[in-house]
């Protein structure tokens, strides 16, 4: 007998649709970290990220329970696309209400132990490079920023990115290419050195 933990996402969706609530718990635990970190990286507000995260999985539950889940073999891309659409809806609503940006929550997303080897000077240089990269990402157009985040921070394939954002793989690749070119151009214009040498 197959245990829930060894089931594929699709088997878990089917099991949940047939009334096994524990199957959805396994799906949630399997994907919650990726989905939450994707949402948080874009909205940069813990409370808002938690709201969108919960709404994402509520929407998934309703869709599965209503028998409308048709993304065979693509649960991760599907759940990420739901989160993506809810983020866009939130920004549209925020724009319409002319609310203030959530940028007052400054978080060092690059404060990661893997950058802590080497001398203090190396550490300072790395910190500065990462801060500069973070600043450059903020200046990118939203569609380029999103592809870059999904690729480098969520480690998704271009196929998954295309599914989530609703564009072709070539468009996703093009956006990534332009994001990198734009970041290089901005770094040169601002005399930023983004290498350790």
Would you write up a description of this structure?
The chain is mainly alpha-helical and 197 residues long. The relative contact order is 0.09. The longest helix is centred in the first third of the chain and has 23 residues. It has 2 domains: 98 residues, Rna Polymerase Sigma Factor, Chain: A; 90 residues, Orthogonal Bundle (Arc Repressor Mutant, subunit A), CATH 1.10.10. It is built from 8 helices and no strands.
CATH level 3 topology of the largest domain = Rna Polymerase Sigma Factor, Chain: A
- Number of separate strands: 0
CATH architecture of the largest domain: Orthogonal Bundle
What does the radius of gyration come to?
Answer: 19 Å
Any idea how many domains? 2
The largest sheet, given as strand count, sense and whether it forms a barrel, is:
none
Helix segment tally: 8
- Binned, the helix content reads 55-70%
For the termini, the CA-CA separation is 56 Å
Mean pLDDT: 81
Which class do the helix and strand fractions yield?
A: mainly alpha
> How would you describe the shape?
elongated
CATH class of the largest domain: Mainly Alpha
Instruction: Quote the beta fraction.
Output: under 5%
